[in-house]
Amino acid sequence: MPDTKAKVAKKKDTPGKKIGAVTHYFNNIGVAVVKLTAALKSGDEIVIAGRGQEVVQKVASMQIEHDKVDKAAKGKSIGLKVKDSVKEGDIVYKK
């Protein structure tokens, strides 16, 4: 007799709320360009996840068009100083 119980897919554990994705990484200066899908401000704790690795850090420095900013709105592309290497396509989460 076949099993008639519905199977429930397990929800993947995410490190927080998705707020954007890395669109470019400048290895020589350790800066990621992030396209935001939600607001971000200095001091927020973020996780950049991809390729089985996570970079966890507080937002210490970010820029829009080479101007230092303390907050950025949804839809903006920001330059974000990161403490470890990331890749294009990595997802950014706010903890």
Mean of pLDDT: 90
Task: Kindly name the structural category.
Answer: mainly beta
Gross morphology: globular
**Care to count the β-strands?**
10
Which fold name corresponds to the CATH topology? Answer: Elongation Factor Tu (Ef-tu), domain 3
Q: What is the C-level CATH assignment?
A: Mainly Beta
Termini separation comes to 46 Å
State the domain count.
Answer: 1
State Rg. Answer: 16 Å
Secondary-structure arrangement, i.e. CATH architecture: Beta Barrel
CATH homolog superfamily: Translation factors
- The number of helical runs is 0
**Main beta-sheet annotation:** 8 strands, antiparallel
Secondary-structure element series: EEEEEEEEEE
- Biggest sheet strand order reads 5-4-10-1-2-9-6-7
As a percent range, the share of strand residues is over 45%
Helix content: under 10%
Low-confidence stretches: 6-11
